[in-house]
Design brief:
Elements lengths: L9 H9 L7 H11 L4 E4 L6 H16 L11 E4 L3 H14 L7 E4 L6 H8 L4 E4 L1 H9 L10 E5 L1 H4 L5 H9 L6 E6 L4 H10 L4 E4 L10 E7 L5 H9 L7 E4 L3 H13 L5 E3 L5 H12 L5 E4 L14 E4 L6 H8 L9 E7 L4 H6 L1
Parallel strand pairs: 1-6, 1-7, 2-4, 2-5, 3-4, 5-6, 8-13, 9-11, 9-12, 10-11, 12-13
Helix pairs in contact: 2-3, 3-4, 6-8
Bound molecules: adenosine monophosphate.
Amino acid sequence: MQFKDLKIMPDIIKALEKENYETPTPIQEKAIPVILEGRDLLGCAQTGTGKTAAFAIPTLQLLSKENAPRTSKQNIRALVITPTRELALQIHESFHTYGQFTNLKSCVVFGGVSQKPQEEELKQGVDILVATPGRLLALMDQKLINIDHLKILILDEADRMLDMGFINDVKKIIAKTPPKKQTLLFSATMPPDIARLAGTILKNPAEIKITPVSSTVDTINQYLYYTDKSSKKDLLLHILENKEIVSVLVFVRTKHGADRLIKQLARSNVSAQAIHGDKSQGARQRALSCFKDKTLRILLATDIAARGIDIDELTHVINFDLPDTPETYVHRIGRTGRAGLSGTAISFCDFDEKGAAERY
Ligand code: AMP
């Protein structure tokens, strides 16, 4: 199967060729035709298997074919909502990449940074908006964003967007969209109660599930180390001595725990940086970008980095603390083993975490 067999328009094919995408991944092969038909969709596929392109490519194509002129009235036609700022940026970059030979304009808005440049961009007219919910609602309240004529609504990391932390904001956003629109939900995990809720916002949806939902890809080797809480730091230092570990993302439960661990590592002359909710957005983006371009070997993170973030050739993920839910485990380790590559996930488990380890 080739992208052209999916009836993708030449302008997009050209961009995919430039990215060296040779064939569609399974979720792309199944989702793209359904989306091009105009149907609502619940799409589930494992981490790192190309979900972003699965919704971005047909969205770009549908809007290109619509031929509606972009207006200067912030008349957005496609909206992608996502849980973290870093993921919003990454999805926006994907739209930009796949749509570089179309004349569609995409824009990204998220909190933690000045609103002014985002306002300026919106004023120029935007076809596709990628947003985190808080800043989106703030801009909507100020009448700087209008989604009255929205054609396509996409919830990425859909189970997260519909859980307790985000559902109220998402409901407020959906209430401002027109009833007639196409809604697309994508995720690697979908707990049954959230799937029921998802059913209430989709109309006669197609459901595409590639491999069992919430499963991990086979190319990730998973290891579990039982240890005392007090020995976790030394275990980490010991593992980091292995020079084959080219880059490693270390998940820590709390922001405070991440900062403390950075200091402990520094005392052993191991340099690392951390991203978490108490860091400025600039510091978060700088650390992530150094990690992505391999100038930083060790990145510590809370679960803000658990979902969606795509780091080329990330070899190792370490769960310094085990996550609270199996879904978060799936997402965290899914930062490695992406796009068909292999990866290693190592989890530390102390006495208090034994119950969690047995559940995952
Ligand atoms: P995603 O799951 O959307 O984050 O994508 C995971 C990785 O796979 C990203 O680095 C994409 O650039 C890459 N990717 C997505 N689709 C394809 C494709 N058809 N061929 C090759 N790489 C792809």
